Amino acid sequence: MKRITNEKGFTLVEIAIVLVIIGLLLGGVLKGQQLIANAKIKSLVTHANGLSAAIYSYQDRYKALPGDDPKAVTNLPGATGGCLAGNLVNGNGDGLTYEYFAAPQHLACAGFINGTYNGTSDVILSPYGTRVYIYRDAIQGKTGNDIRYDNLPADVAQALDTALDDGVYNTGVVRATTDYIPNTIIVSTGFYY
Hints:
Blueprint: H1 12-62, H2 72-75, H3 99-109, E1 124-125, E2 131-139, E3 142-153, H4 154-164, E4 174-176, E5 185-192
Antiparallel strand pairs: 1-2, 2-3, 3-5, 4-5
Helix pairs in contact: 1-4
């Protein structure tokens, strides 16, 4: 029986070093994903605060809420294509033009937000690509003017609520249609102003 004396293989130290390197790489990837998720949530909070500031600025300058400005045509004369006018709280009767379509158009025509909105079908999109509406709404027993974010993941909706309010889905100025249950989608989250 011949004895093999020239065996090749990894030592325990070499295997341990490889495992440490793999662990560091996985940790870095996971931390990077968490940083991206946190940045997106911060972007959403900034988005909500920016829209709120735009609404207040419009109201201060034109003495009307965007979407409810009966003088939008005269208030915003230089707007490309013109802006819709009228009190659009409950729509203007054509079944298409509601204040949540006119509001972003008024804000954009006034230069408070970027983008082009036709006033009849375009809505603002959130950093998550979901629809954002500005109008009079009722969520969890609170009725008033709000910025409504639709179809946000529950953890994102709760983070928005925590950043802007109390973190509880049915109290305060930020309210959601349902409790923040992990791995679910919140149909609507309203930020009342």
